[in-house]
Amino acid sequence: xxxxxxxxNRGEIALRIIRTCREMGIKTVxxxxxxxxxxxxxxxxxxxxxxGPASSSDSxxxxxRIMAAAxxxxxxxIHPGYGFLAENADxxxxxxxxxxxxxxxxxxxxxxxxxxxxxxxxxIKAGVPVVPGSGGLVKSLKEGLKIADKVGYPVxxxxxxxxxxxxxxxxxxxxxxxxxxxxxxxxxxAAFGNDGIYIEKFIEEPRHIEIQIAGDQFGTVCHxxxxxxxxxxxxxxxxxxxxxxxxxxxxxxxxxQAAIKAGQAIHYEGVGTVEFLVDKHRNFYFMEMNTxxxxxxxxxxxxxxxxxxxxxxxxxxxxxxSGKNYYPMMHAIECRINAEDPYHDFRPSPGKITSxxxxxxxxxxxxxxxxxxxxxPPYYDSLIAKLICRAQTREECITKMERALDEFxxxxxxxxxxxxxxxxxxxxxxxxxxxxxFLNDFELGEPEAED
Length: 451
Description:
Blueprint: E1 4-7, H1 11-23, E2 27-33, H2 40-44, E3 47-52, H3 63-72, E4 77-79, H4 89-98, E5 101-102, H5 107-114, H6 116-126, H7 141-151, E6 155-159, E7 168-171, H8 177-192, E8 197-201, E9 207-215, E10 221-233, E11 236-242, H9 249-265, E12 270-278, E13 284-290, H10 297-304, H11 308-316, E14 331-338, E15 340-341, E16 347-348, E17 351-352, E18 355-357, E19 364-368, E20 375-376, E21 383-391, H12 394-407, E22 409-411, H13 417-425, H14 427-430
Parallel strand pairs: 1-2, 1-4, 2-3, 4-5
Antiparallel strand pairs: 6-7, 6-8, 9-10, 9-12, 10-11, 11-14, 12-13, 14-21, 15-16, 17-20, 18-22, 19-21
């Protein structure tokens, strides 16, 4: 097992990793930018190294600075968390060259799944269902029009190097294709330095359901059941839950086996997630694979009583997994608490937290790195906390979440708590009648008096 792990990340995920390492008897090194000097992950790590100014390009995305911190602290492994360098194959490769274990998949595995076209080709060979489409990069507007005609409108244009909804455009009719084609390419070029585009059939009213998997260095892959991630805004998840209210036993088994095939196809090592689109007839299609721990991993942990960070670390240390598939024993829901104003188009709301009280009680978990007096910097992702509730049934879980949200007090900044309160009261949500476009006609209304 490792003696010391450097966490190449910040915020709640860095603190989450530190806690598991401490329980495993592993020393930790926190890295931080000047803007994060007062973050809790810095305080609770065994050692902390400042790696640069607030700009992420000069700190959390700087491979030389992170490797220097690992070298001076004698860390024998690096955990990348999620975001930043978590799916950067070059970073994983540099770790190998330095003789430091990257807690995650190999560089080759990251590259295979990081490029959407290569990932889709790999899944087709593995027998995993994929959405009908171009099957590769589209070389010209003329070729794109032919493919769209063959697949049938609506179609969706996607950046091959994409993520977070960037370089993604829906084309409903042929007359709009050229304009959306140019916009998707320009956006992809600006965001990723790569204007490669591929085309897929657009699945109307789809569910976004993902399967958590784990694979070891000996070729064993298992699944840890599903997470429902359809409550999204501009392709950014806001609420996740397990089990999915749309799931059947037959669909869960079929999707779980497909996810295992996906992992086996690249000899996957570590924990990862295979994401699927599921249509209203319960046909499912591979969308992408995330070769890292995900923001919503606590949902799975709560329903199967399994520490996924510990699993990651053990796999990286060469410990074989059992190969057992896991299924939900409880119901769990996670609400992402972001420093954003939901009444003004979810505008970021950095600043000083003047008062902070997190909810407590049976079946209530809060993952956060903030506290009263903490200043939310404007430089990074706006996630400040994750509120996870667990209960025997979905109805009980929603009721518990309502209670917990009422207890969650964050003053001095705007947060997404009012949005989540309204969502939990929505009849369609409570009945499980939603899809990825659910928030398009969701009305938040006016701020409540106490807000």
